[in-house]
């Protein structure tokens, strides 16, 4: 008879670690000044550690403390992070505190990530979408310790995460129910939280932070900067895609192209008689450029991945539209938002830095390993989808008895980027980056097979209608302007593609180019957005040009 | 500053002049006038030197699609190829919508 196995080794290890810091805790509350000692006692060498931080909210106090621990005590950590956003996220690799990284997005640090992979100081497990990184926290990347951020915490350890709940619940859940340790930085300790976003018994240690967590207004776009080309592209998209396919539910990526569409719905969309007919339901962050469409009755519901700085009061006053708790403040949820974005939407509209001759696109360019964030979840056709909507059904091929619909995945780009480099290229820079970074796969954001439409200032390519790769390439060439890809286009083929509805120019859609002026936007600047919101929107200082 | 000149074979005569756009940063003005020439002539003044090949590409693509027979005068202040094409096609539309 073999020796009885101990089935609770994780639980015992956690209890032992927590007992080592018992003298530093009052209940679950620690002192700010003891933060370093707590991390040094609770994190063991080689641990899998989730450090909260997406493209908006960062557990910035805990990341600074982690970067200050003694590498002789805490080293070779395996970091699991949605976003590599702050310098210390990479400093810990140079100091030996961490050695391996699994992540989703590296926007602000993408250049340094590339360099550190090249010189061997950063070992990458893999690059993920947000949703698949969360998924792995429950399968093969189950964390030992998670470091998260809360707005308010009561003396029992109940967390209020409010507007910026984002990914905190999914991270905490992955640790709390598998004997991981949950450490929370708090903006404020209060007697009573406005509502309980995460219950106290999922939480082990709460540390008051020396300053509020970092929060970026990432989705705020000043209408002042929207160009006439973006307005023309928006008009084409509304006529040639939103109206044509009867789109009811949508996600807009971050960018000026989609901000233009949001500001054209109450004007151009109204002229076309589309109000009440298209896009009532949104999975999108509460971007201020949606305010005019909301106020003029275009929008029925908005669920959000995260909050947006300055939108709190406006959202609280519009509970019919947004997801708002009984306390009156918004609740976001990044994991549920990504799930909704993948499975429940008719359409994703995004932008990118490069599209190759076949229609594959990526934001990874030479020297910048930026990762993906959530775009591939939204910008892909979920083959597990079984419910039908008119827009989804409108892409169904008619020659297959078992055929099914498809999600609309739309890329909107100007043929030349702001750096005057061509967006349409023969081969993506990502192909080279894969070699340099020793990745298993080329870091493609959205594959050609998932891309159903491309919109440029020249027109729309309806890629889902093409019947061969050669035809798909010709459709892309027809709208790729004078990029190397576009120059291969020949006039006879373009005429044929237009006649068959595979390519449409503005005149084919009934879009008048001379109407594409800034006066067509429902709001011309930030002050207009504040007026539309009846004074409820409070833009961050960097977006204020008036007093 | 650079002055460029192009000629393009074209077939669709225009009846009267048209003027679109302004000379502002990142923008340009396009003036088209009826002509008695057998092909279109283009006189371009651009603030960005060294882009003759790109201009040629933009114009070839435009005349392939819209063979307007006219004398063109273009004053450019660093517009992208996309904006150049927008102004050319806006001028084309202004003529057709009358």
Describe the structure concisely.
Chain A: This is Malonate decarboxylase, alpha subunit. Chain A: Pfam families: Mal_decarbox_Al. Chain A is of the alpha/beta class and about 550 residues long.
Give structural notes:
Chain B: It comes from Lacticaseibacillus manihotivorans DSM 13343 = JCM 12514. Chain B: InterPro entries: Mal_deCO2ase/Cit_lyase_ACP, Malonate_deCO2ase_dsu. Chain B: One of its GO terms (cellular component) is cytoplasm. Chain B: It is found in: Cytoplasm. The complex is a heterodimer of chains A (547) and B (98). Chain A has 547 residues and is an alpha/beta fold. Chain A has two domains: 24-215, Glutaconate Coenzyme A-transferase; 223-351 and 365-394 and 405-421 and 429-466, Glutaconate Coenzyme A-transferase (3-Layer(aba) Sandwich). Chain A contains 19 helices and 21 strands. In chain A, strands 1, 3, 4, 5, 6, 7, 8 and 9 form an eight-stranded mixed β-sheet that branches. In chain A, strands 13-12-11-14-17-19-20-21 form an eight-stranded mixed β-sheet, sandwiched between helices. The termini of chain A are far apart. The model of chain A has no long low-confidence stretch (mean pLDDT 95). Chain B has helices spanning 52-65, 81-96; strands at 2-9, 12-13, 18-21, 27-33, 39-46, 68-69, 71-77. A five-stranded mixed β-sheet of chain B has the order 1-5-7-4-3, covered by helices on one side. In chain B, strands 2-6 form a two-stranded parallel sheet. Chain B starts with a strand and ends with a helix. The chains are: A alpha/beta (547), B alpha/beta (98). The interface between A and B is medium-sized, with 24 and 18 residues.
Key traits:
heterodimer; A: 547 residues; alpha/beta; Glutaconate Coenzyme A-transferase; eight-stranded mixed sheet; 16% strand; B: 98 residues; Ribosomal Protein S5, domain 2; two-stranded parallel sheet; Malonate decarboxylase, alpha subunit (chain A); transferase activity (chain A); NagB/RpiA_transferase-like (chain A); MadA (chain A)
């Amino acid at each position: 008879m073999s020796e009885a196995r101990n089935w609770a080794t994780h639980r015992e290890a956690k209890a032992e670690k927590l007992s080592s810091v018992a003298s530093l805790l009052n209940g679950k509350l620690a002192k700010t000044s003891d933060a370093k000692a707590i991390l040094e006692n609770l994190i063991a060498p080689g641990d899998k550690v989730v450090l909260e931080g997406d493209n908006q909210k960062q557990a910035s106090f805990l990341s600074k403390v982690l970067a200050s621990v003694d590498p002789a005590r805490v080293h070779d950590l395996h970091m699991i992070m949605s976003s590599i956003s702050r310098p210390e996220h990479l400093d810990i690799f140079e100091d030996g505190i961490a050695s391996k990284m699994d992540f989703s997005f590296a926007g602000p640090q993408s250049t340094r990530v590339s360099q550190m992979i090249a010189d061997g100081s950063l070992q990458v497990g893999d690059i993920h979408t947000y949703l698949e990184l969360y998924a792995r926290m429950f399968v093969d990347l189950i964390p030992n310790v998670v470091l998260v951020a809360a707005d308010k915490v009561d003396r029992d350890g109940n967390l209020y995460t409010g507007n910026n709940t984002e990914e905190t619940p999914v991270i905490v859940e992955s640790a709390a129910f598998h004997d991981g340790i949950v450490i929370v930085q708090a903006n404020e300790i209060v007697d009573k939280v406005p509502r309980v976003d995460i219950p106290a018994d999922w939480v082990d240690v709460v540390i008051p932070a020396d300053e509020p967590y970092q929060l970026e207004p990432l989705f705020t776009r000043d209408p002042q900067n929207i160009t006439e080309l973006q307005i023309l592209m928006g008009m084409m998209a509304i006529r040639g895609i939103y109206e044509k396919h009867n789109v009811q539910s949508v996600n807009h990526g971050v960018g000026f192209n989609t901000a233009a569409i949001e500001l054209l719905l109450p004007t151009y969309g109204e002229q076309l008689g589309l109000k009440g007919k298209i896009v009532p339901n949104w999975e999108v962050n509460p971007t201020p450029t949606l305010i005019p469409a909301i106020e003029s009755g275009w929008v029925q519901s908005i669920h959000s991945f995260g909050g947006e700085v300055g939108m709190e009061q406006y959202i609280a006053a519009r509970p019919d539209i947004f997801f708002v708790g009984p306390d009156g403040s918004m609740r976001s949820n990044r994991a549920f938002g990504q799930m909704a974005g993948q499975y429940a939407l008719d359409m994703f509209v995004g932008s990118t830095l490069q599209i190759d001759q076949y229609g594959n696109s990526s934001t990874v360019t030479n020297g910048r390993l930026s990762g993906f964030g959530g775009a591939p979840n939204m910008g892909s056709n979920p083959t597990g989808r079984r419910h039908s909507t008119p827009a989804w059904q409108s892409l169904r091929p008619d020659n297959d008895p078992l055929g099914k619909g498809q999600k609309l995945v739309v890329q909107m780009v100007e043929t030349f980027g702001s750096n005057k480099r061509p967006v349409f290229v023969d081969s993506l820079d990502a192909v080279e980056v894969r070699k340099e970074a020793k990745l298993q796969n080329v870091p493609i954001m959205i594959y050609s097979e998932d891309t159903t439409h491309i919109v440029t200032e020249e027109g729309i390519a309806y890629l889902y209608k093409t019947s061969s790769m050669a035809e798909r390439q010709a459709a892309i060439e027809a709208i790729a302007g004078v990029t190397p890809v576009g120059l291969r286009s020949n006039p006879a083929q373009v005429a044929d593609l237009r006649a068959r509805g595979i390519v449409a120019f503005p005149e084919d859609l009934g879009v008048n180019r001379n109407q594409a002026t800034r006066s067509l936007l429902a709001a011309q600047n930030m002050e207009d957005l504040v007026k539309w919101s009846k004074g409820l929107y409070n833009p961050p200082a960097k977006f204020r040009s008036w007093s | 500053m650079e002055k460029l000149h192009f000629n393009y074979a074209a077939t669709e005569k225009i009846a009267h002049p048209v003027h679109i756009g302004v000379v502002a940063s990142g923008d340009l003005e396009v003036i088209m006038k009826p002509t008695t020439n057998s092909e279109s002539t283009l006189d371009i003044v651009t603030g960005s030197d060294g882009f003759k090949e790109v201009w040629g590409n933009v114009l070839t693509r435009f005349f392939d699609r819209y063979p307007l027979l006219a004398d063109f005068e273009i004053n450019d202040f660093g517009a992208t190829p996309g904006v150049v094409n927008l102004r050319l096609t806006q001028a084309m539309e202004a003529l057709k919508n009358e």
